[in-house]
Amino acid sequence: MSALLDKALEELGALPPEEQEEMASQILADLADEQGWKAPFAQKRGLIRRMAQDALDEDARGETSPFTDFL
């Protein structure tokens, strides 16, 4: 376990039990949400790479505009 996580758990342990439960619920929800995002992106990794390469190729051909043109 990292030193930062150790410190966070130590501080959480000093909270009243009901606040510990609330924080634990939030952490578990965040972890579940993160997993929910990882799966779809992992399944489409090849597609995302191809799209990124297409964008780089378009830029190399001069077919793109600077972002600042849209501000």
Description:
By secondary structure, the protein is mainly α. Helix content is 76%, strand content 0%. The chain contains 3 helices and no strands. The mean pLDDT is 94.
Flag low-confidence runs. Answer: none
Structural class: mainly alpha
Helix content: over 70%
Span between N and C termini? 44 Å
* Biggest sheet statistics: none
Overall shape: elongated
Mean pLDDT comes to 94
Number of strands: 0
| Secondary structure tally, helices | 3
What are the SSEs and their pairings?
Blueprint lengths: L2 H11 L3 H27 L1 H16 L11
Question: What's a concise summary of this model?
Answer:
The protein has helices spanning 3-13, 17-43, 45-60. The chain is mainly alpha-helical.
Structure characteristics:
71 residues
